[in-house]
Amino acid sequence: MYLYKPTSHILYLLTFDIEAWYHLYPKPYKHVIFQKDVYPASLERDTRRIFHLLEEKSLKATFFWLGEDAKKHPGLVRELHDYGHEIGVHSFSHLRIREMDKVTFKLNTEQALKTIEDITGEKVKSYRAPDFSITEKDLWALEILQDLGIERDCSTIAGSHFGGQIIPAAPFLIKNNGVVLKEFPVSSFPFLGHNFKYAGSGYFRITPYGFLNHKITTSPYVMSYFHPRDFDTLIHKKIKWDPYLKLKYRMGAGRAFRHLGQLSEVIPWISLREAENGIDWEAAEVVEI
Ligand SMILES: [Zn+2]
């Protein structure tokens, strides 16, 4: 069994948010939504590229699927599941928590869970909110997630302020109003007044490999997060978008997949499901809000 206790062991978590390329923030990007049907092949192709890399390296990861995309690609969801990857949920239609009331959030999450569970035949237990959007103003979402059978959440950012407390840089228990969830925060470090989420997406793409390698190999806990589009260089030829988006989503896309492959030679990435049983939850910090 993989054993992890805060400060004395290492834990490297590999996660992907599987969603179509056009779920970008900040919203709204109307000209992007207008083009959303222009490039339908990207999700399947880019996710299969990730799948093959992990097969090659014999690694397992957690794939947080968007419900509406799982519905379009049931065969791929099933293949990932049957291979041994964990299938988590990333909402149905990529609305942030603050864009929904309680009823809408519950229906949206239920719809995503049903879609995925009907495909895999297995209960989904891991969740990540779109845009890491569970904040201290949306704590009601935790109770709904627990009611729906979610046990592990990855919607917080290490080092950020949350209900008057600072989110730890390690797995912890989040408690609120009788709800208890196992929380796996995304890794970050403070940079120019901002939490720099170096282990995923645009932050990973723009960070020089030497620094990434040093930071990840010397950290006791790393939670990564990638999207299929992070590794897609064709997208910039297919989609007409403004210079800001081009800069934000193009920078480093050509080298990010290579960097993930290089890191995967030396990093023993695992999924959340694999990590949970090895963690000494008695020793984990409790954030009670
Ligand atoms: Zn997302």
Explain what this protein looks like in three dimensions:
This protein has helices spanning 30-34, 42-57, 67-72, 74-83, 102-120, 140-147, 201-206, 209-217, 235-238, 243-250, 253-266, 272-278, and strands at 11-13, 15-18, 62-65, 86-89, 126-127, 152-153, 161-162, 165-166, 172-176, 179-183, 189-191, 194-196, 221-223, 285-288. It is built from twelve helices and 14 strands. Strands 5-6-10-9-14 form a five-stranded mixed β-sheet. A three-stranded parallel β-sheet has the order 2-3-4. With 289 residues, the protein is an alpha/beta fold. The chain has one domain (11-288): TIM Barrel, CATH 3.20.20.370. A hairpin with a 2-residue loop joins strand 9 (172-176) and strand 10 (179-183). Zinc ion (ZN) is lined by residues 17, 19, 23, 90, 94, 130.
Question: How is the topology of this model organized?
Answer:
Blueprint: E1 11-13, E2 15-18, H1 30-34, H2 42-57, E3 62-65, H3 67-72, H4 74-83, E4 86-89, H5 102-120, E5 126-127, H6 140-147, E6 152-153, E7 161-162, E8 165-166, E9 172-176, E10 179-183, E11 189-191, E12 194-196, H7 201-206, H8 209-217, E13 221-223, H9 235-238, H10 243-250, H11 253-266, H12 272-278, E14 285-288
Parallel strand pairs: 1-13, 2-3, 3-4, 5-6, 6-10, 9-14
Antiparallel strand pairs: 7-8, 9-10, 11-12
The structure holds zinc ion (ZN).
Summarize the structure.
By secondary structure, the chain is α/β, with parallel strands linked by helices.
